[in-house]
Amino acid sequence: MSFAWLKRYMPRGLYGRAALILLLPVISVLVVVSVVSVQRLIEGVTKQMTTATAREVRLVLDPRSEPRDAAILAISVNSISQSAVPSTDIRSWYDFSGIIVIREFSRLLPTLRAVSLADSQLVSLYIQTEDGPIEVRFDRRRVSAANPHQLFVNMAVFGALMTLVAFLYLRNQLRPITRLAKAAAAFGRGERVTYRPAGANEVRAAGLAFVSMRARIERQIEQRTLMLSGVSHDMRTPLTRLRLSLAMLDDDEEREPMLRDVRDMERLLDEFLAFARDAAEGETELIDPAALIRQIVQDCERARIPATLYKIVGEGEVRLREAGIRRAVENLIGNAVRYGTRAEVSMRLTDKSLRIRVEDDGPGIPPDRREEATRAFTRLEPGRNQDKGTGVGLGLSIAADVARVHGGSLRLGQSDRLGGLCADIVIAR
């Protein structure tokens, strides 16, 4: 039997699940103890006491007994009129033991007409005799235990107290896990928060492994940045000399193709430098994404790049790294106009997410190669137009990295309006 449907009702957070694990046994024990108490204490004891009292009532009503017997048994017997007899049994809705009292008296006293438990201290029996109806009154403690609800009150109070104590202890055990989760999530967004392993041995071991992993990744990123920055910087000097030498040539037909090759090499170096810079550089700040998108499109128009603003939906500020978002959107626009004739940019801001979309009318990317396209140094020119320029396969990779450090993702699809590639940067708020 599958219990998969229960997952939708389970708490998502660690504290919620821990509280559920803690409360379920406590509540189960309370329910079992309550059921046993009702069956044994309330029902069993009340039944025995009611049976004994019913025998005493029969003894008092026996014509052969002496009048002093009623006084000895602390039972009051009074003659009443027919109109004073209740038409039905009387008890409070919360008086569970009264149900058993009424049931047992009705079974043991055949001439009983009604039972009144309106007064919590007294029991009134209305019995029909040959001389007319009589009222038999005696203390309620003769037929049921005094304050039977105290057991449930004590169970509830001490159960809540022990649950609170256990939850406080459990919270101290869960706090190192939540701190580790927050540190890991922050590192995934490119932020570094102070974290010191603590807690139980298993949690401490996981924390030490995370700290070691974070240090190793940071060293690799630093080495990659230094390597690419050094290579790109060292290559600019000979390229500058080569450009100056070509500028001195008199033959324009030979000079222009070689200058174009130099410009392509400089553009490739710029892409290497952009990739070498970490996507998480800079601090996040509250910015207006709509204003940023409008500014990026205006800069493209001034640079005579065929990019237009299609639609902006929603207003507000979002905590972003402005330089990273600008670089990602510019890379998507550059890819769009390289493999198509135009690019259209749109933005949608909701309470839950920010979506920046760039569409083009180019050949697009096949669905089975879209994941491969976001990897660094991956070129898909066999499936796209090579006549529009060359690249090193870093545009989509940089955009994906920027989206990832913001806690989002880069999604590639097909544009329904333009027919080419549709690239979405989706960031949760």
List its salient traits.
429 residues; alpha+beta; Beta-Lactamase; Helix Hairpins; Heat Shock Protein 90; 3 domains; 4-stranded antiparallel sheet; 11 strands; 52% helix; elongated
Give an account of the 3D structure:
There is one protein chain. The protein is α+β, with helices and mostly antiparallel strands. The protein has 3 domains: 14-142, Beta-Lactamase (2-Layer Sandwich); 196-278, Signal transduction histidine kinase, dimerisation/phosphotransfer (DHp) domain (Helix Hairpins, Orthogonal Bundle); 280-428, 2-Layer Sandwich (Heat Shock Protein 90), CATH 3.30.565. Helices cover 52% and strands 16% of the residues. It has helices at residues 14-61, 68-72, 96-108, 150-188, 201-247, 252-276, 289-302, 322-339, 370-373, 395-405; strands at 76-79, 112-116, 122-129, 132-139, 285-287, 307-313, 318-320, 343-349, 353-360, 409-414, 421-428. Strand 3 and strand 4 form a beta hairpin. Helix 1 runs parallel beside helix 3, helix 5 (201-247) runs antiparallel to helix 6 (252-276) and helix 7 (289-302) crosses helix 8. The longest helix is centred in the first third of the chain and has 48 residues, at 14-61. It is elongated. It starts with 13 loop residues before the first helix and ends with a strand.
